[in-house]
Design brief:
This protein starts with 5 loop residues before the first helix and ends in a 19-residue tail after the last helix. The relative contact order is 0.16. It has a 6-stranded mixed β-sheet with strand order 6-7-8-3-9-10, with helices on both faces. A 4-stranded antiparallel β-sheet has the order 2-1-4-5. About 35% of the residues lie in helices and about 25% in strands. The radius of gyration is 18 Å and the shape is globular. α4 (about 110-115) runs parallel beside α7. By secondary structure, it is an alpha/beta fold. α8 links the parallel β7 and β8 (about 205-210). The structure holds adenosine-5'-triphosphate and magnesium ion (MG). Magnesium ion (MG) binds near residues 51, 52, 99 and 177.
C-alpha cells in the first residue's frame, strides 16, 4: 500500500458539510475547508454565520447542542469525525477551546488544567507535568495563580486558562473560537502571540474570529462564511486585500460600494 504523504496524516478535511439544528434550521450548507498539518486557517464571518457550528462538528460536540451532520464528511488524517464523539476527536488530536472561555469557575487554575487531559483516559504523571510546564511557559501568569479559583481570574487570564486546558490534551489541531472576544487590545495582542507560538511548536490551528485584522495576520489561509455558506476563500494575505473583506471585516473605506463586490449579492 502506498504510504500517504506525511502532510495527509494530520490534515483536517471538511467536505461539503451540511449541518442542521433540531428539525429545520440549516446552519451550514456544503461547507468545505482544509487545514494542512502545521497550518493556520481562519474562519471569518458575522454573528450567526455558522463559525461555531463548524468547530462543534469537528470537535464532536455538535450533538450536545442538538445539531446533526446531514451531509458531507469530516476527516482528520485517517479518522472520520462524525460530530457526535468528542472523545474520539480528542484522541485523534483535535481539541476545541469553546466560545466564551468556559472555564470551571469553582475549580482552581490547577484543577482546570488537569481536567484538560481527562478525555484521554489514564495519563502518566510525566505527561501531566510536561503539559503544565508547557502551559506555564506560555502563560507565566497562570503559574503564579495555580490555587486561585478560575472564576476570580480576569477575562484575559480565563482565556489563557481555557487555551492552557486545551493544550493539556497535547492537540495536533487546536480549534479556537473567538479567543479575542471582549479583551483589551494589549491582551488581544498577547493572545495572537501565543497562537503564533503554539503553531511554531507544531500545532495546527483553526481560528474562528470576528477580529479579522488579527486573524488574517496570523493565518495562512482564510474562509469567509456568510449565512452558512463559504463565500470567499484564499490565502489570508490575498483576502485581506479584497474590497469585500476590507470593507466588511476590516472596517475600511474602499471607494467601491457595489453590493456585488461584497460577495453578499444573494443575501
Ligand atoms: N443549539 C442551537 N440550536 C438551534 N440553533 C442554533 C444552535 N446553535 C446555533 N444555532 C443557530 O445556527 C446558526 C449558526 O450559529 P453559530 O453559533 O454557528 O454562528 P457563529 O458564526 O458562531 O456566530 P457568533 O459570531 O455570534 O458566535 C445561527 O442561526 C444560530 O442561531
Ligand atoms: Mg460563534
Amino acid at each position: 500500500m502506498p504510504a500517504r504523504p506525511p502532510d495527509e496524516e494530520a490534515a483536517l478535511h471538511v467536505e461539503n458539510l451540511d449541518v442542521t439544528y433540531g428539525r429545520a434550521l440549516s446552519a451550514l450548507r456544503s461547507v468545505s475547508l482544509t487545514v494542512p498539518h502545521g497550518g493556520v486557517v481562519t474562519l471569518l464571518g458575522a454573528n450567526g454565520a455558522g463559525k461555531t457550528t463548524l468547530l462543534r462538528a469537528v470537535s464532536g460536540t455538535l450533538r450536545l447542542h442538538r445539531g446533526t451532520i446531514t451531509g458531507g464528511r469530516i476527516r482528520y488524517g485517517d479518522t472520520e469525525l462524525d460530530g457526535r464523539d468528542p472523545v474520539a476527536a480528542v484522541r485523534a488530536g483535535v481539541v476545541q477551546v469553546p466560545e466564551g472561555r468556559r472555564v470551571f469557575a469553582g475549580l482552581t487554575v490547577d484543577e482546570n488544567l488537569r481536567s484538560g487531559g481527562l478525555g484521554l483516559g489514564r495519563r502518566s504523571p510525566a505527561l501531566v507535568r510536561d503539559g503544565r510546564d508547557r502551559v506555564f511557559t506560555l502563560f507565566p501568569r497562570l503559574a503564579e495563580r495555580t490555587q486561585q479559583a478560575a472564576g476570580l481570574l480576569s477575562g484575559g487570564e480565563q482565556q489563557m486558562l481555557a487555551i492552557g486546558r486545551a493544550l493539556m490534551a497535547a492537540p495536533r489541531l487546536l480549534l479556537l473560537d473567538e479567543p479575542s472576544l471582549g479583551l483589551a487590545p494589549q491582551m488581544v495582542h498577547r493572545i495572537a502571540e501565543v497562537v503564533r507560538e503554539i503553531n511554531a511548536q507544531g500545532t495546527a490551528v483553526l481560528l474562528v474570529e470576528q477580529n479579522a485584522g488579527m486573524a488574517l495576520s496570523l493565518a495562512d489561509h482564510a474562509r469567509v462564511l456568510e449565512v452558512g455558506e463559504v463565500r470567499l476563500s484564499g490565502p489570508a494575505d490575498e483576502l485581506a486585500r479584497t474590497d469585500a473583506v476590507r470593507r466588511l471585516y476590516l472596517g475600511e473605506q474602499t471607494g467601491t460600494d457595489h453590493p456585488s463586490d461584497t460577495g453578499q449579492g444573494a443575501a
